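Q: Convert this sequence to structure tokens.
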Amino acid sequence: MPPNKIKTAMLLAAGLGTRMRPLTDNLPKPLISVRGRTLIDRMLDNLVENGVEKAVVNTFYLPEMIEKHLRARQDIEIIISHETERLETGGGILNALPHLGDEPFFVTSCDVIIKKPENEKSGFVQLSEEYAEGSEGALLLIPLENTYGYDGHGDFNIDDDGKLKWREEGRSAGYVFSTIQILHPQIFARAEVQQWGKVFPLKNIYDLYLDRLRPAIYKGRWYHIGTPEALEGLMEG
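A:
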């Protein structure tokens, strides 16, 4: 698939933002500002720059605030997929499928910022180039040393055949999953997925189809705004 062929994205914006409290007591996490720009606008800006034309945004916590904020955007079509109960990440996409169409789409959370190195491809272009017809999708991975605001031990290693392998318990892995990915809607129609019902995390998908998800290694910096401390450090840095 050529760069920028993917025109639709799913933004996961239905979380409670519990780790960001007290900032999220009365504000949904996607509307937290970093240097004068909200997290969700920063991600939408990035998607628009990479040729995405439609964004489906799921909501649950303080949905009216997100919807009101997004009405000001005129540069991209935005569809709200509201959830009356928490469906988790996988269930949220399943619920939004009627808006996403039949072609592969980007998926990302709103609480990450990626910085493109000078003279390098963007993460979205790199991911779309790595995605291959017939695969279930592709995951954008960040070398552990290129992360900011992340306090874990990595998520994946890549074996000699280029296949993804989960980090082993008690050990570190070389790559962190950026939350940015491409998924094909055909995944959610499969019987193995349908049996989970309407509430399930995306990790179920990764566990089931890991050998059919392609890794794309991104050389830029990746910022995870997961705690007030991470946000404060980014504002000061």
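The radius of gyration is 17 Å.
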